[in-house]
Amino acid sequence: MDNITIERIGKAHPIIRESLLKEYQEINNKLPKGVRLRFAYVLRTPEEQDALYKKKPKVTNAKAWQSIHNYGLAFDIVLLYDKDGNGTFESISYDVKDKHWIDVTNYFKSKGWECGADWKTFKDAPHFQKAFGMSWKQMKAMIDAGKFTTENGVKYINIQELN
């Protein structure tokens, strides 16, 4: 497994953390030797989101608090390859036509994750999210209304309050 990804999953929203770790381990175990899945992002701070928004060329339309990453309910994937067979996994791939990329995408979609590759505009193939039927505006309103818990300085919306 990829320790960087395991650490990033530890910052995901508590409501998805355990299942996300299990799903990550399951799909990673299905990948062949020499291929590893990494989550490039899970939780993204509002400051990180704004910096990404200002980046050129444009990589996102979302400012701070407009991304599901800001709520710990999204992740972006990348595949790592051990091209030399020495266990270093130095080659990075975002090739959406790669067989392993397709397998990973199909796996997460089968587990109920929304994939940015399916969006009508501004397709974002590495992106997956579970928004629990809410828009980022609804999530931001929860933050503004104080409907969140704090863990290690991170504000996580109280999803259980939706029921």
Biggest sheet features: 5 strands, antiparallel
Indicate how many domains the architecture comprises. 1
Tell me the number of strands: 7
Characterize the overall form: globular
CATH architecture designation? 2-Layer Sandwich
Number of helices: 5
| Low-confidence sequence ranges | none
Task: Report how far apart the termini are.
Answer: 35 Å
CATH names the topology as Muramoyl-pentapeptide Carboxypeptidase, domain 2
Helical content stands at: 25-40%
Query: Can you identify the CATH class?
Result: Alpha Beta
Structural class: alpha+beta
The oligomeric state is: single chain
**Structural Rg:** 16 Å
Mean pLDDT metric:
94
Tell me the β content: 15-25%
Strand and helix order = HHEHEEHEEHEE
Describe the overall structure.
With 163 residues, this protein is α+β, with helices and mostly antiparallel strands. The chain has one domain: Muramoyl-pentapeptide Carboxypeptidase, domain 2. It is built from five helices and seven strands. It has helices spanning 3-9, 14-30, 46-53, 99-110, 136-144, and strands spanning 35-41, 74-81, 91-93, 114-116, 124-129, 148-151, 154-157. Strands 1, 2, 3, 4 and 5 form a five-stranded antiparallel beta sheet that branches. β6 and β7 form a beta hairpin. The longest helix has 17 residues, at 14-30. The protein is globular, with a radius of gyration of 16 Å. It starts with a helix and ends in a 6-residue tail after the last strand. The model has no long low-confidence stretch (mean pLDDT 94).
